[in-house]
Amino acid sequence: MSPHLVEVETRTALAAAPLTREMFQVVLKPNWVEDSHVRRPGYWEPVITDPSIILGVVSSLGQALPSGGRITICDAPNTYVSFERVVARGGLDRSLRFVQGSLRALTVELLDLRREVWITREHVVVERRPNPPDPRGYVALGLGRHGMLFGHAGEGRYYGADYDTAVVNAHHSGCVQEYLLSGTAVNADLFINLPKLKTHKKTGVTCCLKNLVGINGDKNWLPHYVEGPPSKGGDEFPDETAARYVERRLKKAGQKLALALPVAGTWAYRKARKAGEAVLGDSESVIRNGNWEGNDTCWRMALDLNRALLYGNPDGTLREAGERKPYLAIVDGIIGGEGNGPLAPDPVKSNVIIIGTDPAAVDAVACKLMGFDPMMVPIVREAFAPHRWPIATCRMKEIEVQDDRVGRVIGLDEVQPAVPGGFRPHFGWPGLNPAKSGRSTS
After folding, report:
1. What single-letter DSSP state applies at residue 419?
2. Domain spans of the chain?
3. Would you list the DSSP string of 179-225?
4. Residues 201 and 428 sit within 8 Å (Cβ to Cβ)
5. Which tens digits make up the pLDDT trace of 40-81?
6. Comparing C-alpha atoms, which of 227, 232, 223 is closest to residue 288?
């Protein structure tokens, strides 16, 4: 059965690709966070963007782009993931080589945006290896006082993507609010976002807005949460029990030891971490690391990234509000992911594809298709807030949807879930769909 098309329109933007014959560099950004479900090796369908969507977009662009143009398909997967295994899923690498032969003088490029890859054992980093960098370099883009983390109460206690928290806190201090973006993404004449429709442990949902985490060269510039519980100004977990206090202290000590003594320190941290999980439970069953609806950090970082992409210039400056980069979103909801997303979701045969040019509006519709109220998802709700560099091109109530399931244009409030009852949220976000909340069966 063919997927239903859900086109998102607003009264101020067209739901069509802003493609012109002058565009030579088009970037496609799928969701390639992992090479497979973390608990079911080799099973990738609810985790990453369906290869058929990527191939369809490449083929369409091949008919529209001028001779000599370049299509770059790129992402920055989790630092320990094999890029080669990701692009081999569904035979994508082989199919792209075949398609390339029919695209005249166009170039199709696969690009890993990471500057570093890790070797891990028992979820602990034991080795860091340099990765070939983005051939177009990286751009440090700062939002200053307009960054969503400016003046945030958690300043100085952010946790990024690595054990060295000094890095992330150095890039998010006072008026310094900066991100290291891929030069390929920033230089694109047209950016096409190809996210997956699934739940997310830190932001509730991952769709267009959250998918931009993958255009970074160094994810340790990205604040993921503030260490500690809300009672101490953090959002790492809801409350600090005695067990959590001990765990947090041992975790910090283990990470410092691993950095100071790469061999003996990492071995000791691995054993301590494994013992702790045996007693306290792993992160697929216990709230930790900001994996809950009280995370007030991660959504802010993601919205900053969207502004940096939409308005960022290759020289690190920012455009005026009316000069945003041409952008198109095509969301893969053929098989969605519910429960322990984004890495261990259960599959949902949602059978929808969402298309639009406004990432905030598309994500609001995605929430409705998942059975969630977009006003309860901060990353979506706050994308509509007034800002010097706006993300949304309209107010949420102005969104109009051409829904093939009903055959007409409807308002956002009329959009029905893709499956009866909607998606089951991550267990740290029970409020998104109380009727279907609970632990994943992964």
Report:
1. S
2. 4-144+172-219+299-436
3. EEEEHHHHT-SEEEEE-EEEEETTTEEESHHHHGGGGBS-GGGS--E
4. yes
5. 999 999 999 999 999 999 998 888 887 778 999 999 999 999
6. 227
